[in-house]
Amino acid sequence: MTRVRRDPAPVLTIIRGNSGSGKTTAAREIRRRYGRGCALLEQDHLRRIILREHDHDGGAAPAFIAATARSALGLGYHVVLEGILYAKHYRAALESLIAGHPGPSHVYYLDIPFEETLRRHATRPGMAHITEAEMRGWYAPSDALGVPGETVFGPAATLEAIVTTVLHRSGLAAAAPLAPCPVTCPRCSVQAEGVHLGAEQ
């Protein structure tokens, strides 16, 4: 098995929050700023696209997502895992992932009121088909994991504050990427110009 050379151990970062909280935008910006050598694992892609599974008790998604993160960490990649990741479905898998990772682990929860998630959701392109009732059905208030060291961001936290905090606390701000992904890269510059909390997708 080919392994990316990494010393010290790679960093595991978990970013959770309700739909429209800004977690996906923040996770993508953290990975963009770090550069190559950081795996971005998005719950929606792993569960909905790869497994094509509904989010329910007893589903395969929690174990599959945790195994995917373990694999990337084992290959030497830093990992940013993001998603709603409901505590009632994912707590056991995430706690096991954290406990089994020999390197640093950081957990963040974006605690955003429903009305604000609804407002942010309305700014996202191509999402008009999702109703307020559906958003309300997905919403889980105050769903932090409660693991030691978990950081909770409230609605006043800006995207810049979240990204900067995660990068510095995790050590990724000072860690050299395997290969830089500068803002001068055409794709990265376009993504950087379009990043804001209301554009999470």
Number of helices: 8
User: What gyration radius follows from the Cα positions, in whole Å?
Assistant: 16 Å
| CATH class division | Alpha Beta
Query: Which stretches are low in confidence, meaning pLDDT under 50 for 5 or more residues running?
Result: 196-201
Cα distance spanning the termini:
33 Å
Structural class: alpha/beta
Percentage of residues in helical conformation: 40-55%
β-strand number: 5
Strand order within the widest beta sheet: 2-3-1-4-5
CATH fold topology: Rossmann fold
- Look at the structure and name the CATH superfamily: P-loop containing nucleotide triphosphate hydrolases
Strand % is 5-15%
Could you say which overall geometry the principal axes of the C-alpha atoms support?
A: globular
Q: How many domain modules?
A: 1
Described by strand count, sense and barrel closure, the largest sheet is: 5 strands, parallel
Average pLDDT across residues? Answer: 88
Order of helices and strands: EHEHHEHEHHEHH
Mind telling me which CATH architecture this is?
3-Layer(aba) Sandwich
